[in-house]
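Journal club side-thread
Mid-discussion, someone asked how the predicted structure for our own chain would compare to the paper's figures. Pasting it here so we can look after the session.
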Amino acid sequence: MPWDLLVLGLGNPGDRYAGTRHNVGADAVAEVARRHGGRLKADGKVNALVGDVRIGSSRVVLAVPTTYMNDSGQSAVALVRRYEVDDLSRLVVAHDELDLEQGRVKVKVGGGLAGHNGLRSLDAHLHAADFVRVRMGVGKPPGGPDRGADWVLSKVRGRTRDELDVMVGIAADAIELIATDGVDAAMQRMNQRP
């Protein structure tokens, strides 16, 4: 029986990057696993932490690449092959987004890469960018766009951490909606939120 969705949460591996803005996509996938009793286990053949859950009637593979963000596409292409995702509308990618204000979650199909190295790697390896995206707003860095790397890779604490944790929960809601009600319904519900 085929899998209904493959959900990929982008981030960087290791303690150095845990709790950073760049890892909110990985955090959202971990939250979906937690909610549905799934366990993400290391799988060296696909360079990812992988688990599977049932969300409503959908069979869902959850994965977090163990490569660095810039190499996420290597893991993605191996996962797409293994789980026979022949239509990229069945691939959902959760990722941080500088172009969205902090805390906003939007669902989108395809689109540009917005300078995101993880998305650029997925596009290079999959030769397409028309997968579903759960875009998680981390806002623009103070001091201009050339401060982007420091902004997304620095640890976040206090009230900002709390706001990002709320956003991770909303992104997990979006992933669940995609699994149960489809992408259009998830876009309608999530993209209307203030």
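Post-session note: The two ends are 39 Å apart (CA to CA).
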